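the two lines:
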Amino acid sequence: MLISGRIVSLIMTIIFALILYYLPERAKRVKIPEIRKLPAIAALEEAIGRCAEMGRPAHFTAGLAYLTTDTGPQTLAAMGILGYISRICARLGVPLVCSICNPQTIPLHEEMVKQGYIVEGRPEDFRRDYSIRYISDEQRAYSAGVIGTVLREKPAANIVIGPLYGEIYTLLECGRPVGALTIGGTARIVQVPVVVVMSDFALIGEEMFAASAFLTEDPEERGLVFGRDIIKWICLGLLVIGILLSLPGFNLPALLSK
Amino acid sequence: MERTKDRFWYGIICITTMLIYTVIGLSLSPTSPQYGWLYTNIISPLSMVAWSLPIFWIASACYRAIRVRGVETALLLIATLITLIGFAPVGDLIYKDFKTASDWIIEVPGTGINRGIMIGAGIGTFGLGLRILLGRERGYIGEIARREG
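prediction for all of em together
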């Protein structure tokens, strides 16, 4: 029995799921539009290059990085970006320090960093004890731990990407006293303004999810971004139709929520 | 805990505190007044210190952010000033419509932008979640190294 008020949501979910399933498959065979270059992603290579020039490490943290809440996909998107960062670090010989809050993500961090070194042909350079640092799952202790890590290691790049909460202020700003370039990113709407204000380069909202497609140039990933753009156009179309219908007094939201 | 010259004492303090908490918690229970006293007088003040730090971070970030470097930062500065003055107790005394303008900035352009980002982030979350459920997203379990290594 379908619950009243959720039928349209169900139909839309099925349509969106089909689009997101079909387009990545189709992208393997058909050429799809290019993804625009994201300044924050372009800045990652520049920031790590800066670390190599200055002979200082790079620091990465994903915030509280929950896996079992609605922000789980953000954590996994951040892990994809970490994989890219570790590859650049391995290529340029820059030590990478990862500060971890959620113990569930320790194996993910380890795997992503190790993969980066393996892909670049330098598995022997991966130092687990140096790169993978679990601090605490308590938010305040974690914030304090990140400050200490950054002040001691003096990274030239402080990369903070993930589902960020109240600790965002300390994570983004603690790199300033040591002259680190700050790259921030989150899709949590309440923290987006903070990321924009406090970072030199920011990845906001959906850019976090599009980043891995841009980085890997995998047609399947790019097809997924294309599918998401089509869904956004559908949403935009519904908004415009709703606005136009509201002018003569027709209530589209009420009809859709029946 | 590292045996380094400058950080050794921090390790001693950390281990000692952990032992004190463990001994009191096990011998008197975590609900005892003694354990509560330790929490109120050690954890709470330390937490307050940790949460007071962002005030300084926000101040320095705001100073950098509201410098006018172009059209976008100028708009940000204007919107920030109107919103700040609109919410300040003296806002109404300076100009009676500051509050109205501040509310408009939050409710009209602010809400519109928020919804745009929320729709984008929601679709992104849905897409990645679907790929994980279908087993198409395997980058975090070694797929990249297997594919490119």
